[in-house]
Amino acid sequence: MPNPPQDFAHRLVANMPDAIVHADAQGIIQVWNQGATRIFGFPESEALGQSLDIIIPTSLRTRHWDGYRATMQTGQTRYGNGDLLSVPALRKDGTRISVEFTIIPFTDQTGKMEGICAIMRDTTAKFEETRALQKQLAALTSMTPQ
Predict the structure, then answer these.
(1) I want to staple 41 with a disulfide (CB 3.0 to 4.6 A). Which of 4, 17, 92, 142 is the partner?
(2) What are the pLDDT digits (tens) for 75-91?
(3) Is residue 69 domain-resident?
């Protein structure tokens, strides 16, 4: 089996259709791939150096930053073992979407948190389909005689 090219990891991250976003300990975006541009609408040049707030709905920011700061201070997260999370997110045009993601905590040699990488997928269509089916089921259930 041939060895992968030297720049395999770089090409994988850059060209993955899922969003790969790495933020430092302060929540400032350091890595933004083509998938992130496709999903969120911000080109890399606009996203790099910005706060994660550009993709977090205003109503969820306090909760997000409380958890983010706690993770940066303690190195502990409920979501670092490959758990799949589902949350609302924002596109550049203000559209609210649904994303599922996993996170990878990044630490230095001493174990101190340096940041977090998230791998995200737009699941808006799946979320809307599930919600429509739940509404249909609720309507049918309410019509059933007791």
Answers:
(1) 92
(2) 887 766 777 888 999 99
(3) yes
